[in-house]
Amino acid sequence: MLPPVKKDRIINQLPNYFSPNAALHTKDGFHPQVQAACQVHKKDTVSLNIAKVIVVGDVAVGKTCLISRFRKGAFDKNYKATIGVDFEMERFEVLGVPFSLQLWDTAGQERFKCIASTYYRGAQAIIVVFDLSSLSSLAHARQWLEDAMKENDPSSVLLFLVGTKKDLSSPDQLAQIEQEAIRLSEEIKAEYWAVSAKSGDGVRDFFFRVASLTFEANILSELENSGSRHVGDIIRLTEADHKPTKRKSNCC
Ligand code: GDP
Ligand code: MG
Fold it and tell me: Residues near 65 by Cβ (< 8 Å), separated by ≥ 6?
């Protein structure tokens, strides 16, 4: 039996977007069908509802620090390059229903790219990370997205473009790079966020938004597929359905 979800991981309202010009949607509440389904079944739902989220981007843009700031509530000053991939589970309760994000942290080095790409498959969300103080890392974002998309169905993946290290940029520099980032987000249909793992600025809001939007999309898609109105049936998924599968790779 899992321990109860921590109080600061409970989501009862749809969190706000960062920028209305680059948001996946700008509605101010969860989809009414999702709210209704959760309302009916929240009490007797003890099940496994998971979304796989992959985090990609150039080496040293701050992917690992971003995840660890959210998970531990602190900035990890000891730099350790990620080797291959790591994954962490983060548990939430959304509209009274247990929900977990499986956060896959990948290595940005060219030599690990092939290993990492074998873990891209079956993602519900892709987070493309760039460093707000490095234009080249933003320029590479499109390539990261293309690589991640090769393994996924574009119609069912939510995209987030996240600029990190907000603490390092002056307001002028920030405005300039944000203009580019928002333009790219509109083009690739991603939701844009600017955060700082160092100060914590925006990190919690960002992950709450990821959890909420993936939860909403999961429930809506299950409602559509099953034609059922019972969220209890929907989220009673077997663990086997969600176990990370290691695929054989013929590269690297
Ligand atoms: P990754 O390779 O993308 O996983 O990058 P890391 O998370 O390991 O971070 C790379 C470097 O950037 C480390 O030296 C971190 O201390 C630094 N870093 C990460 N996030 C921030 C941030 O928000 N602000 C600042 N100033 N430095 C950061
Ligand atoms: Mg890393």
Answer: 75, 76, 164, 197, 198
Instruction: Report pLDDT digits (tens) over 154-189.
Output: 888 999 999 999 999 999 999 999 999 999 999 999
Supply the pTM of this predicted model.
Answer: 0.87
Residue 56: give its domain's CATH number.
Answer: 3.40.50.300
Residue spans of the chain under pLDDT 70:
1, 41-48, 79, 84, 108-113, 115-116, 227-252
Ligand 1 atom with least separation from CA of 197: 23
Question: Per the domain annotation, does 179 fall within a domain?
Answer: yes
* Contact criterion met (CB below 8 Å) for 157 and 125: yes
Nearest C-alpha to atom 26 of ligand 1 is from which residue?
A: 165
> 103 lies in a domain?
yes
Write the residue with the smallest CA distance to atom 19 of ligand 1. Answer: 62
Cα separation, 244 vs 148, whole angstroms: 16
Total structural domains in the chain?
1
Q: Separation of 164 CA from ligand 1 center, angstroms?
A: 8
